[in-house]
């Protein structure tokens, strides 16, 4: 359908087993995503793309460890291991992902001072990535989302998409979660409340 886009979120080496911020089973969904891409006319990838020393990295804060919380000007922020650094192997897409199918690759998290989970907005929920405008000009109103991680970048993208008026579906079989302190259950409930369809 020409009004539908498949959004493949952050299928990068650092989020797969062996990576700096590995999601358990993250590599198990690659072939399923490849098969799904073959069924869709419109395919968009997102790519986490951090400069070295990004302020969401625990290593940028003295005495802080990965997965601790800190306060940023835009609110609470999880501190992560260094990951998806621009130009690094970890920042590249999984080698088995069929990258030629992507019509657009949206990079996010490239501003040192602010993290970006959602494909639509950075973590201040105000700074746009430009994806909404791209979808509007292409006449796309329905989104199917897959990728990593269910409870962070996928969920935040789904919530923002629904808030912007898109018909959003998340294929949970082709996602994997970090599940940090119950984050999967919490974000699943938020997605359902926002009208996101989970399949």
Extended strand count: 8
Q: Unreliable runs, pLDDT <50, ≥5 residues?
A: none
Q: Widest sheet: strand order?
A: 5-2-1-6-7-8
| Class based on secondary structure composition and strand pairing | alpha/beta
Total number of helical segments? 4
Provide structural commentary.
- The chain is globular.
- The chain has helices at residues 30-37, 131-137, 150-163, 183-193, and strands at residues 4-9, 42-48, 69-72, 75-78, 104-108, 142-148, 167-176, 197-198.
- Helices cover 20% and strands 23% of the residues.
- It is an alpha/beta fold.
- The protein has a 6-stranded parallel beta sheet with strand order 5-2-1-6-7-8.
Question: What's the short version?
Answer:
Strand 1 (4-9), helix 1 (30-37) and strand 2 form a beta-alpha-beta unit. This protein starts with a strand and ends with a strand.
Secondary-structure topology with pairs:
Layout lengths: L3 E6 L20 H8 L4 E7 L20 E4 L2 E4 L25 E5 L22 H7 L4 E7 L1 H14 L3 E10 L6 H11 L3 E2 L1
Parallel strand pairs: 1-2, 1-6, 2-5, 6-7, 7-8
Antiparallel strand pairs: 3-4
Helix pairs in contact: 3-4
